[in-house]
Every structure is written in structure tokens, then in C-alpha cells.
Amino acid sequence: MSSLDQLSLPPSLRGIDTDMSNQQVIYSTLRFLQSPSESPNRLRPDGNQKSGNIDGKVILGILCLLLLATVAVLGTKIFQYTQENRRQREMIGNLTREHHILQNDSYLKEKLLTYKTLEYSILKNELLQQKKKQDLLFTNRICQRENKGKFYGNCWSCYGIKCYYFIPESKNWNRCKQTCQSYNSSLLKINDEDELAFIQSQTYRNNYWIGLSYDDREQKWKWINIGPPFGINYTFMNSSGRGQCAFLSSTRIATIECSKTYNCICEERIDDVFSAYFDRYKKKRCNGTCHLFVCFCDNL
After folding, report:
1. Of 18, 214, 274, 284, which one has the fewest beta carbons inside 10 Å?
2. Could you tell me if 150 and 169 are in contact, meaning their C-beta atoms sit under 8 angstroms apart?
3. pLDDT in tens, 131-177
4. Domain residues of the chain, as ranges?
5. φ and ψ at 240, to 5 degrees?
6. What's 156-297's CATH class?
7. Closest CA to 199 of 253, 124, 271, 243
């Protein structure tokens, strides 16, 4: 028996004491029974702390890895951007140099074109001057007297590769044709507008037959002695002109009956003219003046 049982208590308190004892025992028992379960609870704060430290380190490590990965990615991107920027700068520099080169090349080409144009203009002017001199030379007339002493007011006027014989005698178209044939030439056949302008500048106020007539058999207008180069086509040549021939004045070309009488214009190549002229007088001495291959003999 315990010392508590040996204590004498008043009867009024024995029941209470007994109950308290029982409660204490029970309480002690409960505490004893609960103590094993409390021991883990007392150890849990340390375990949680260690676990928390480990989790924090893991998270920190993960964050560090993410940070390193981010830094690596950013570094790679920055490097790539730097390389791309450098490449683009080099490309821009190359394009700029090429642009300057093209500008210089274009400038040089423009200058060259300007010089070529100027050179062309100079050469063109020189050719025009030479042509004017030649025209001036070719328009000099070689006048001659026939053996019978009859002087014809007609002369050879040369332009380009042809010479023209102006005969100031009124004849019908067929008679003019025969007259030209007697000079080993033919009635005028106009090949271009320049030739027409030259001829008209020589006609003054007179009308001259030219080698254009209407062929009644073929029913069309034809230039005399057809062959290259062909004559100019005029509007009236598209219509009928039976019994008509063409004549020329200083202002126009028109048609009229071939029986009318006008002056004559004969033509011949310049080499044929001078060849015949010099062959005719090659056995005679020429007392006169010569300019290049054109001579004016006073005694012939």
C-alpha cells in the first residue's frame, strides 16, 4: 500500500481523495501513454528545419540553373545579334561603296556621252561645212559654146553625184526628151526632197519639163528610164493623167498636156559629165583656170 493509502483523512474527504488519486493515476497514465507520441512532435521542428534547408537549396540551385540558362541564352542572342549587326553593317558598307562606284560610273558615262555628243556635233559641223564647200564647187557651171558659135544659156549645175543641164528653150515634153538624149543624158528624175530643193533654187521663174509622164498603155505614172534609185511619188500619181506630163517650177510640181512647151532639164551622173567633157577637149589646150577637178576653159 502506498503512503497515500496510509494517510488518515476525514471521512468527508476520503471519497474526494480517492477520486483525485484515481484521476492522477489516470492522468499519469495518460501522460505516460501520450509521451511516446509527443516525442516525434518534439523532434519535428528540427526535421522540418533540415527539410526546409534542403528544399531551399534545391530551389536556389534550380533558380541558379535557370539564371545561368537565361544568361547563356541572352549571351547567345546578344552574340548572334552582334554578328548579324556586324554583317549588316558590312553589307551596308559594301552597298554604299557599290552605290558610290555606280554613281561615279554613271557620272563618267554622262561625261563621256557629253564629250561624244560634242565631238559628234563638231564632226557634223565639219561635214556640213565640207558639204557646203562641195556644193559650192559642184554648183559652178561649166558653160560651153557649140562649134557653130551659137551660145546656149544652159550650163551644167552639179549637186551631189549628179549634174543638171538647164536648157532655156521652149519645147514640148517629147522634144525635151530627145534633146536630153542628144546630150547622152535624160530628163530630170527627182530622187529626194533635197534634190528637189536644189533644182527649184535654180529654176527661177521658168517652168521645166521633168522625166515624169503618164503611160497610157500601162495606165500609170512612170519616171523615165526606170531603175534604181526610183523617183519620188507624188499625190497626183495616184490618179489617171492620160496625155499629161509633169513639169517643175520654183514652187511646185504639177501636170499638164505633154504638148505644151516648157524649158528642159537634163541630168547625168557627175563622173559621166566630166568624163565626156574632158574627152571632148583632151586634145586641145585649155587656157583658163582650174579648181580641183573642175576646169573653166576660156578658149573652148
Report:
1. 284
2. no
3. 766 655 544 444 443 333 333 344 677 777 888 888 888 999 999 99
4. 156-297
5. -70, 150
6. alpha beta
7. 253
Cell of residue 250, nine digits: 520654183
| Ranges in the chain, pLDDT < 50 | 1-4, 6-7, 13, 16, 21-43, 138-154, 227-229, 278, 281-300
Task: Please answer whether residues 263 and 170 qualify as being in contact, where contact means their C-beta atoms are separated by less than 8 angstroms.
Answer: yes
User: What phi and psi, each to the nearest 5 degrees, are found at residue 261?
Assistant: -110, 125
For cell 515634153, what's the residue? 173
For residue 201 the three cell numbers come to 533654187
| Contact in structure between 297 and 285 (CB atoms under 8 Å) | no
Spell out the long-range contacts of 91-99 with Cβ–Cβ below 8 A and sequence spacing 24 or more: none
Dist. CA 19–CA 41, nearest whole Å: 31
Q: How far apart are CA 157 and CA 141, in angstroms?
A: 5
pTM for the predicted model, two decimal places = 0.44
Of 254, 250, 266, the C-alpha closest to 188 is 266
User: Grid coordinates 546656149 are at which residue?
Assistant: 152
Angle CA 228–249–166, to nearest 5: 70
Write the secondary structure of the chain as one string of H (helix), E (strand) and C (coil).
CCHHHHCCCCHHHHHHHHHHHHHHHHHHHHHHHHHHHHHHHHHHHHHHHHHHHHHHHHHHHHHHHHHHHHHHHHHHHHHHHHHHHHHHHHHHHHHHHHHHHHHHHHHHHHHHHHHHHHHHHHHHHHHHHHHHHHHHHHCCCECCECCCCCECCCCEEEECCEEEEEEEEEECHHHHHHHHHHCCCEECCCCCHHHHHHHHHHHCCCCEEEEEEEECCCCEEEECCCCCCCCCCCHHHHCCCCCEEEEECCCCEEEEECCCCEEEEEEEEHHHHHHHHHHHHCCCCCCEEEECCEEEECCC
